Amino acid sequence: MLTCLAAICVTGAVAIDGDTVRLDSPGKNLRLRLWGISAPEIREPGGVEASRALAALIDGQTLACDLMDVDRYGRPVVRCATATVADLSCEMVRQGHAKDWPQYSRGAYVAAAEGGCINREGP
């Protein structure tokens, strides 16, 4: 079981694409952007597969997320874990569905494509 000590702890998240999740609530749908990675948009090659991969990782899971930043669209940018995945961004890169975005991650997920992640602090 995941002990939620993070800034944001949510259930019922839905994958929008490979790097964004949506939380449905009355009157507002909050979108959270995963920190440090870039995944293809749903209409781009690999986008549907990336969305499905993220959906499989979060399905039925509680997400424990730390707020890292806010993007230009006003979305919270978060680093999230579940009871079974220590870092969703790392796992998406490790599976080949996303790429490290060094402009924001400072290379935190470069090693993920080879099966591991380096532990770096966020912004």
From TrEMBL:
Pfam families reported for this sequence: SNase
Residue intervals of the TNase-like domain: 16-99
Native source organism of the sequence: Paracoccus niistensis
Taxonomy of the source species: Bacteria, Pseudomonadati, Pseudomonadota, Alphaproteobacteria, Rhodobacterales
Identification of the protein by name: Thermonuclease family protein
SMART domains on file: SNc
SUPFAM superfamilies: Staphylococcal nuclease
